[in-house]
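Consider the tokenized backbone below.
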């Protein structure tokens, strides 16, 4: 029977296949893509004309675009329905996801609050209790905001006395927020909802009101129209939003793409951070203890990133990369705060520093080859101790109020679920506060760090995680994931989804490529603008390392990344279509000539430059822009682009246009699909149910296009000839 079944499979495969590529991939599914019309749309850059035949897909409000989305989702849904083990993946994801997740407690007023998710709740719930012996009660349940979980809780902020809460909500994943103010005892809303708030924190001025940021509502689509003048407002409790005081950002001289405001814990100072892009900020200060005080400028350029992390009276503690690419902490008196008066408090080291405060101490967290090291200092600059961490991985938290008696921190890595620990800051004693009870055994897996050489000789670290006993035979299904931009560091963290991937015999590899912040400002800058190709070269070299060292081979390798990481995947697959079998670009920045014309995209120019800067920058961007580098007659990897129809950060038009280009030019049988989540945005606040469905589809698509007829943990044999 076994031989007969194999003969039938081979016969069926040969009958269905028309070329060698099809013969190799017996899982090939015939796909008929929706017709995507082209239009005559041409832009001229420095004398060069560039066609944009799918410009019409940028109109997110048109019925025609909506019909195209439905048609693409129908094709993608039909394809995914052919994958026999997609439901098995979903069931296992749900099983392992279904454990209680509890956040670190925090005290506001008379109550102790904490987040908790029972397991598969779409959104985590905020609980509270007055005393340790009290029974916890539900304080705020975002799952009641909507029936399908697509309205999510954003930030929360309590008044100084803890009696009033202001919290923001997002609808359908949009970056636009509404702010609701409630009485914490009655849990009732006490005034009208604030609307049209975007890219904003909520920072209270004692108990009187709070600061928030937003843009004027754009003309045209609020999901794609450009927004570039951010404003800081003060909302006084009991007044209407129309009466809110404009603090900063209302004049041409004060025009910045991002403006944030933060009040010190003692309520004495407001610090304002105007930015023209995602890197570099000015630093301004207002003394709130003095009526009608003027705004004082501390830094008036975008050359550095500096933020005030704490004050003790008039002494300010500032973390900065000014003359310190790896960051340091300085002090200065608020009466004379300009940089020439700054004094080093925690000097720069060879490792990148971030810092937080809690319980009257400063906690300096260092990245040592992307792994955490934490030191505790007092306010005189004396080293109290190095915090003993549970292992090699990422430690987070260490933040709280000055009078907190206990410090909480979390620890995880790629194979260890996040556990919360307590720390007595006076004695240094620590212990487990909350360890998850998850149907997963980290002892079955291993994670190791390697260093490989990129194209120009630069050494790049990479963490590779997989099941113990994995044979390095070049046939392990592997996901290579990274980001490579905006000074964001890829530090080890646990993912339920990746645990399921590794259970299937999968390898998960994350290189710390340039453009990130793992080695400070120099590492970031080495992957920006006219050096952006370094990022792609680092990623390609990581893939080649995995192949050369037999972790995998091109037939079993997938690349994945989101947002700027989606650009990374798009550029890699268009530059090296032969390198990988599967590509999963998520919510990617894929049209590098027009990214800056949508929403707040112009704020990304520090990393990318723009096509309008000069001819050299235009040529460089066009040279790697994924939308503009899809070529006729090339066999691209099996591709599933993912995006959300409410993504107003990286608008879905990027993904739409890339999908259209691939579908019109792809050669061979590899599918080029797009999965468009409805009522979803860039990712934040996505309901658990949708997240699980997304991963089941991504892993199913990936394994299926690597040739698996069944899940690898059922059988590690492959179809003959693959």
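A designed sequence for it:
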């Amino acid at each position: 029977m076994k031989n007969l079944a194999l003969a039938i499979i081979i016969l069926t495969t040969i009958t269905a296949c028309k070329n060698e590529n099809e013969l190799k991939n017996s899982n090939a599914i015939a796909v008929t893509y929706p017709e995507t019309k082209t239009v005559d749309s041409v832009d001229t850059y420095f004398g060069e004309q560039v066609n944009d035949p799918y410009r019409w897909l940028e109109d997110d409000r048109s019925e025609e675009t909506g019909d195209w989305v439905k048609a693409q989702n129908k094709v993608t849904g039909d394809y995914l329905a052919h994958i026999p083990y997609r439901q098995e993946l979903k069931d296992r994801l749900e099983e392992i996801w279904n454990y209680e997740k509890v956040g670190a407690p925090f005290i506001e007023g008379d109550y102790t609050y904490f987040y908790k998710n029972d397991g598969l709740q779409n959104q985590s719930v905020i609980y509270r209790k007055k005393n340790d012996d009290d029974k916890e009660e539900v304080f705020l349940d975002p799952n009641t905001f909507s029936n399908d979980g697509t309205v999510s809780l954003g930030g929360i902020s309590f008044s100084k006395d803890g009696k009033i809460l202001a919290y923001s909500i997002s609808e359908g994943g949009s970056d636009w927020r509404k702010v609701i103010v409630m009485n914490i005892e009655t849990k009732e809303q006490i005034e009208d909802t604030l609307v049209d708030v975007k890219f904003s924190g909520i920072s209270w001025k004692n108990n009187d009101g709070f600061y928030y940021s937003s843009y004027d509502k754009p003309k045209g689509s609020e999901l794609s129209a450009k927004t570039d003048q951010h404003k800081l407002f003060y909302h006084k409790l009991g007044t209407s939003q129309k009466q809110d005081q404009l603090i900063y950002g209302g004049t041409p001289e004060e025009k910045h793409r991002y403006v944030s405001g933060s009040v010190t814990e003692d309520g004495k100072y407001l610090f304002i951070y105007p930015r023209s892009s995602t890197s570099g900020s000015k630093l301004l200060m207002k003394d709130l203890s003095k009526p009608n005080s003027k705004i004082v400028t501390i830094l008036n350029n975008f050359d550095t990133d500096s933020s005030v992390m704490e004050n003790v009276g008039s002494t300010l503690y500032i973390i900065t990369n000014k003359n310190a690419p790896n960051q340091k902490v300085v002090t200065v008196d608020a009466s004379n705060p300009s940089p020439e008066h700054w004094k080093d408090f925690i000097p720069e080291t060879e490792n990148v520093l971030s810092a937080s405060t809690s319980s009257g101490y400063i906690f300096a967290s260092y990245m040592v080859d992307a792994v955490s090291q934490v030191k505790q200092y007092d306010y005189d600059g004396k080293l109290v101790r190095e915090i003993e961490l549970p292992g090699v991985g990422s430690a987070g938290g260490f933040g709280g109020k000055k009078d907190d008696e206990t410090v909480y921190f979390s620890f995880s890595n790629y194979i260890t679920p996040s556990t919360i620990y307590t720390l007595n800051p006076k004695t240094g004693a620590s212990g487990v506060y909350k360890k998850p009870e998850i149907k997963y055994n980290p002892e079955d897996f291993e994670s190791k760090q390697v260093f490989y050489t990129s194209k120009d000789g630069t050494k790049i670290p990479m963490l590779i995680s997989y099941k113990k006993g994995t044979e390095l035979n070049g046939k392990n299904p592997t996901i290579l994931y990274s980001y490579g931009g905006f000074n964001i560091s890829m530090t080890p963290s646990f993912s339920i989804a990746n645990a399921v991937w590794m259970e299937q015999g999968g390898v998960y590899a994350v290189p710390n490529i340039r453009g990130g912040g793992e080695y400070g400002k120099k590492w970031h800058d080495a992957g920006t603008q006219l050096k952006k190709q370094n990022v792609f070269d680092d990623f390609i070299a990581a893939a080649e390392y995995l192949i050369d060292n037999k972790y995998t081979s091109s037939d079993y390798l997938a690349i994945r990344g989101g947002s700027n990481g989606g650009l990374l995947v798009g550029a890699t697959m268009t530059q090296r279509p032969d390198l990988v079998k599967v590509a999963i670009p998520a919510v990617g920045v894929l049209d590098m000539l027009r990214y800056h014309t949508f929403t707040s995209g112009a704020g990304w120019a520090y990393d990318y430059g723009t096509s309008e800067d000069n001819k050299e920058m235009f040529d460089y961007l066009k040279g790697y822009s994924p939308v503009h580098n899809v070529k006729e007659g090339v066999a691209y990897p099996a591709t599933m682009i993912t995006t959300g129809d409410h993504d107003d950060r990286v608008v879905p038009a990027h993904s739409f246009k890339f999908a259209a280009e691939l579908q019109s030019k792809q050669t061979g049988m590899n599918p080029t699909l797009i999965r468009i989540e409805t009522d979803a945005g860039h990712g934040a606040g996505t309901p658990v149910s949708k997240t699980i469905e997304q991963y089941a589809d991504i892993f199913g698509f990936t394994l299926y296009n690597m040739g698996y007829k069944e899940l690898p943990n059922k059988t590690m044999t492959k179809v003959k000839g693959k």
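The chain has twelve helices and 39 strands.
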